[in-house]
Amino acid sequence: MDHKARTSKTLAASIKLQDGLAVDYDSADEVDASNYQIIWSNVMDEGNYVKPSGYNEVEVLLLCWDQGSADIATHLEVESLRAVFVDKFGYNATVAKLDANAQKRLQVQVNAKVAKFVEDHDGPNTLMIVYYAGHGKPGQYFGDLELFGMISPNDRRDAQKRARDLIVWNKTEQLLKPAEADILEIFDCCYAGTVGLTRGEDRLFEFLAAAKQQGKTAVPGKESFTSALIHALDHLLANKEGGRFTTVELLRTITNHAPHFPKDQHPVLNERGDMPAPAGRIMLHPLRRNDTEATKFAEKPSKSHIEILGRDVNGISDRNTLGDRKTLPLHRVRFGGLRSSVTVRALRKFQESLHKRRASKKQELPRLEIQLTPDSASLVPLSPNALSPATTGYHTPDSATNTDFAASASPDSSVCDLE
Fold it and tell me: Which of 257, 227, 262 lies closest to 77, judged by CA?
């Protein structure tokens, strides 16, 4: 077998391997699992758990090329996608442009942007989305995906020029791996499915590619992957209960319902690890900012809250009775009082002392108001008795808005004692 034949056989085997790693999003098992995950999530959010089934925060980084560094205009679609994430889903989304004409290498630029993104937004119960729009192609090594802004008429450039004009995404992706948050990568470029397998992850880490390993994508316009993505996000948000859906449903909607998406283009959903997903698929949903605000420490339970708590405790006792025998032998349940935590009490004392200090400063600090006489340009001070806050609308140090302090902690209460 000659070298060309061996190379062709190896390439075919690698393509088959990559395709085997893709999620079969049209299979009955994946569709059922996706539906069950949404049903379960909705039911679990009816319970009283410390963490919700969805995300508290979703952060989006949209990578694209500066207009002077690209031969395709992606900025309008990128801005439209950003608007959907921000205005309709309540996510925080930032557009980061790559400049091929800058002094710093592109690899350094994108590494810095992604590292800053992780540093600023990583955390528990958070989803971080990284999106890219531009050119892409297989790299020099198996599983590498190279990103660039312009197609060169002669791609056989020297190594130094190649390093300046290209980004190897696999190198940048290493910066995302230590993150605690779940990760979703969405790439709208040719050959996006080229990205190879990474090591096993202990949280959800998925890669949504616009095309298979050897597949090409449409340029920006009504047939582009990003246009289909925007359509699918709008459609699912409007038609799913609570606006919740998984990446499997998102990809199915792109391929089956986006009106202008090419039928011969085949997006891919990959797990970015060699281990099964720990908890289903990544689930997208709109954020309700009011739901994520912590309860103010000054709030206290109402009469109905205490009654509901008592009835729930009675229900626990009733459900643990078998005939005349109690499987959970409780003699009685007493109310243990409602006491603020040490932290809350300290904060309240600090507030009180702060207000006292402000009040004393208002009495101690003299104020001098100056006015112009109508007949001359000279300044005439008011009488010494005018050492009081100005009432003419002039800005004084104390006319600024005072800043109060609040704590985002609920009362550390001992509500009931079990005997």
Answer: 227
Q: What count of residues does the chain have?
A: 419
Mean pLDDT calculated for residue range 343-353: 72
Distance CA 166, CA 163 (A): 6
pLDDT > 90 fraction of the chain, expressed in percent and rounded: 37
**CA Rg value for the chain:** 30
Encoded amino acid at 343, one letter? T
CB atoms within 10 A of CB 118: 20
How is the chain split among helix, strand and coil, in percent rounded to 5? 40, 15, 45
Is 61 in a helix, a strand, or coil? strand
Degrees (nearest 5) of the Cα angle 110, 115, 121? 125
Q: Whose structure tokens read 């998102």?
A: 250
- Quick one: which of 179, 56, 202 has its CA closest to 120? 179
Q: Looking at per-residue confidence, does 148 or 345 come out higher?
A: 148
For residue 186, which of 254, 278, 103 has the smallest C-alpha distance? 254
CA dihedral 194, 201, 27, 253 (to 10 degrees): -70
- Answer with the residue of higher pLDDT: 296 or 201: 201
Q: What is the DSSP letter of 176?
A: T
Question: Is there a contact between 175 and 111 (Cβ–Cβ < 8 Å)?
Answer: yes
CA distances 143 to 111, 170, 188, 302, 416, Å, are 19, 8, 17, 59, 58
**What is the crossing angle of helices 75-83 and 225-239, to 10°?**
10
Query: Chain-wide mean pLDDT for the chain?
Result: 76
Task: Tell me the residue ranges of DSSP E strands in 248-392.
Answer: 268-271, 283-284, 321-322, 325-326, 333-335, 370-372, 379-381
pLDDT tens for 154-177 read 455 555 555 567 899 999 999 998
How confident is residue 335, by pLDDT bands cut at 50, 70 and 90? low
Instruction: Locate the DSSP E strands across 74-164.
Output: 92-98, 126-133, 135-138, 145-148
Are residues 130 and 91 in contact, defined by beta-carbon separation less than 8 angstroms? no
**pLDDT given for residue 123 in this prediction:** 92
Confidence at residue 345, expressed as pLDDT on a 0 to 100 scale: 67
- Distance between first and last Cα of the chain: 81
